[in-house]
Amino acid sequence: MGHQHADAEGGTVALEGVRNFRDIGGLPTADGRRVRPGRYFRSGHLAKPTEDDRKNLATLGIRLIVDLRSPADIELDGADHVPDGARWINLPMTDPARHSDFWSDMKKGDMAVLRDRLGDGKAEKAIAFDYRDQVVSRTANHAVLLNSLVEADGLPAVVHCSAGKDRAGIAAALVQRIAGVPDEVILANYLESNDPERRYRPNSDKLAMRPELMELFAPFLEVRAEYLHGALTMMDTNWGSFDAYLADGLGFGPEKQQRLRELIVED
Length: 267
Hints:
By secondary structure, the protein is α/β, with parallel strands linked by helices. It has helices at about 50-60, 70-75, 100-110, 110-120, 120-135, 140-150, 165-180, 185-190, 205-210, 210-220, 225-235, 240-250, 255-265, and strands spanning about 10, 20-25, 40-45, 65, 85-90, 155-160. The chain has a six-stranded mixed sheet, with helices on one face. Helix 4 (about 110-120) runs parallel beside helix 10, helix 6 packs across helix 13 (about 255-265) and helix 8 (about 185-190) runs antiparallel to helix 11 (about 225-235). The longest helix is centred in the middle third of the chain and has 16 residues, at about 120-135.
């Protein structure tokens, strides 16, 4: 396995037991620079790394792990493996892809109930709402995340949720925007979670055997451009501008923004 260096489209680090683990390094900024490799990694949970994964994580020199999972997620997935020398903080975000009865619904598979609740675009609408809501309702946690990155020993960091696509996707987009990465590049990076090797697959034989179930639950298992676009739009409009969102919503003003750019963007 081993560490694969970042390429122009953003880096990859091959891990077997950690879903969707990747380096945002290499992404271009609007002023012609690039995000620095080896600074900010996004992923699914770190509860089940292989021995090789543990060695690879150790070589990355991780100093901070930010776990965006809820206590229920942590109970379900397991606690993170925390590499030596790293500190772990938990900033629970709402999970657009998992409401409290999501898994029980899927296991019971009452098609009439599921069609009523998820069909006709209802699943997509619920997820899109949750993405926008997370920007507004989780300002305290996003503020702690950003401040933690600019503190001493804040980088390299791994910021993750359960599947590494929704909550971690919003957080990565926020950091990339501050770094000066254009929105179209942010969206393309976010959509990499749909790649076959990264794609979220629930551990459910019932889903795999029932095509209609798969179709109903597809919006929860995929990422879609309109989901993240809604969150980015909310960052721009709810406070009047993106700068106001950072300064007023998150208490992360121009000096802190410049500090983060110095840390994660190449000179």
